[in-house]
């Protein structure tokens, strides 16, 4: 193992060119938060932005560092690039923090993730592809198959009437993005944060608006009304048996989807108390404004310890 005071870290992150304003702010918030910890730990580090120049690949090829702290979420604005970047690190046999390429690929494709977890007996809302005039159920929510960060999710995506469905369907066809229709579970929503193979916090989204969904604005636009009407509280107020059920289910999903080091599982509970898997997020946002940061605080885990342990785990995988 490399001595702590001689450790050299490559902080890998996305160029902001292909991301809109809220996402740009999040990228820089994450980078700055991790950078401050590395400085406080007296680690040597350098920043390496990933962009279309491909110079970052040449820099990685030199391997004049010990570990990569991976904060990349896409490549040239394409969320599938998250797995591509991790694949480059795998190909160069570079130790890095977070999940492996296959996990990113599976989790990004919401339909594949749903099919996989349901195979293992975990409930997930029913779905269908909107490629015909048939509507299999109502209410429903229209979601992109392969987008992250709730991109293209708006309140109007929740549909209760047949006529509204076809109207919205015509609108989204103009976006050149594949959507699927998912059964809308009108109930409570939980964000389950996992670190080192244990649940460190269960947060609940408190909906003060209808319909009860997290839109893109809810997650990223701090100036929007939706953002302020959907706060997340820690811990979620739940009965002990439900806490145990959510923890067990989330850890099972984490393992099934091959997530690693840290992640977030999003769940919904209907009015009958049935819990449904919604989606999984390997390498979620870890900026100081994030839900994961709140979960760390709730669990009593200092942010510096979290960052240090991620680096240590990555280095152990190199041995």
Question: Mind explaining what this structure looks like?
Answer:
The protein is of the alpha+beta class and 319 residues long. The chain has helices spanning 21-40, 55-62, 81-91, 101-108, 110-119, 162-172, 216-220, 225-228, 240-256, 291-299, 303-318, and strands at residues 8-14, 44-50, 67-70, 127-128, 140-144, 158-159, 179-183, 188-195, 198-205, 232-233, 262-269, 275-282. The protein has 11 helices and 12 strands. The strands form 3 sheets. A 5-stranded antiparallel sheet has the order 10-9-8-11-12. Strands 4-7-5-6 form a 4-stranded antiparallel sheet, with helices on one face. Helix 1 packs across helix 11 and helix 3 runs antiparallel to helix 4 (101-108). It is globular and about 60 Å long.
List the helices and strands and how they pair.
Layout: E1 8-14, H1 21-40, E2 44-50, H2 55-62, E3 67-70, H3 81-91, H4 101-108, H5 110-119, E4 127-128, E5 140-144, E6 158-159, H6 162-172, E7 179-183, E8 188-195, E9 198-205, H7 216-220, H8 225-228, E10 232-233, H9 240-256, E11 262-269, E12 275-282, H10 291-299, H11 303-318
Parallel strand pairs: 1-2, 1-3
Antiparallel strand pairs: 4-7, 5-6, 5-7, 8-9, 8-11, 9-10, 11-12
Helix pairs in contact: 1-11, 3-4
């Amino acid at each position: 193992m490399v001595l702590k005071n001689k450790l050299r870290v490559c902080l890998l992150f996305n160029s902001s060119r292909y991301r809109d304003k809220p996402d740009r702010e999040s990228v820089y918030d994450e980078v700055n938060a991790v950078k401050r910890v590395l400085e406080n730990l007296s680690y040597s580090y350098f920043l390496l932005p990933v962009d279309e120049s491909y110079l970052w690949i040449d820099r990685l090829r030199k391997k004049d560092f010990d570990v990569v702290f991976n904060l990349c979420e896409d490549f040239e604005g394409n969320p599938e690039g998250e797995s591509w970047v991790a694949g480059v690190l795998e190909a160069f046999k570079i130790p890095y923090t977070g999940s492996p390429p296959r996990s990113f690929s599976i989790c990004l494709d919401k339909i594949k993730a749903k099919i996989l977890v349901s195979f293992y007996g975990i409930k997930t809302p029913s779905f269908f592809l909107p490629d015909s005039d048939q509507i299999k159920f109502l209410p429903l929510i229209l979601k992109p198959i392969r987008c992250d960060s709730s991109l293209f999710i708006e309140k109007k995506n929740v549909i209760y009437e047949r006529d509204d469905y076809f109207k919205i369907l015509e609108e989204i066809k103009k976006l050149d993005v594949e959507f699927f229709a998912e059964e809308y579970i009108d109930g409570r929503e939980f964000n389950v944060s996992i670190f080192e193979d244990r649940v460190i916090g269960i947060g609940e989204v408190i909906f003060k608006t209808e319909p009860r969904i997290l839109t893109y604005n809810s997650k990223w636009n701090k100036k929007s009304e939706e953002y302020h009407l959907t706060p997340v509280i820690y811990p979620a107020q739940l009965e002990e048996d439900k806490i145990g059920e959510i923890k067990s289910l989330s850890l099972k999903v984490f393992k099934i989807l091959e997530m690693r080091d840290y992640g977030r599982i999003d769940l919904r509970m209907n009015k009958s108390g049935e819990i449904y898997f919604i989606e999984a997020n390997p390498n979620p946002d870890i900026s100081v404004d994030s839900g994961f940061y709140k979960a760390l605080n709730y669990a009593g885990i200092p942010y510096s310890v979290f960052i240090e342990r991620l680096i240590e785990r990555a280095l152990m995988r190199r041995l």
